[in-house]
Design brief:
globular, alpha/beta, single chain, Protein-Tyrosine Phosphatase, Chain A, 144 residues, 6 helices, 5 strands, five-stranded parallel β-sheet
């Protein structure tokens, strides 16, 4: 079993959806705290509709997003600080509930991808989430 991750930082919506389809992804979990974007096609409603048209399910788990302070550090390139803030956030009950939901979705019979903004998975909180889920399930991470 593989859990995919994808960032849309330098991509069009069409290119991201094609990469998801090429990888066999059937469900996309949006792990942004704020599912709005200045990039065309990546705000929640439009993204969900476009994914649905492509045969890919969409789930937004906003409690798995990075808090504002963490996003501010990430924009400044201070990834270690962002990770620290995100790890603290993950101890909160709402984040734990949504991590359990994400883990159950991945445990199912469909291939899943986590979506966030950053192109480089190493600089994004989705890697922390993917590691936690795959540690629990024994799956592999596939960064698209």
């Amino acid at each position: 079993m593989k859990l995919a991750t994808i960032g849309y930082e330098r991509e069009t919506q069409a290119a991201v959806i094609q990469r998801l389809k090429d990888a066999g992804v059937e469900v996309l979990i949006d792990v942004r705290a704020v599912a709005a974007s200045r990039r065309a096609g990546f705000s929640k409603t439009l993204l969900a509709a476009s994914l649905n048209d492509a045969g890919i399910g969409y789930v937004h788990l906003r409690q798995l997003g990075t808090p504002k302070a963490g996003r501010d550090f990430a924009r400044k390139g201070k990834i270690a600080e962002m990770h620290r803030i995100f790890e603290e956030h993950m101890a909160e009950p709402g984040a734990q509930v949504e991590l359990a939901k994400a883990t159950e979705i991945v445990r199912g019979d469909k291939k899943v991808a986590l979506l966030c903004y950053e192109a480089d998975a190493a600089g994004c909180h989705r890697t922390i989430l993917a590691n936690r889920i795959c540690d629990a399930l024994g799956c592999e991470i596939e960064n698209l």
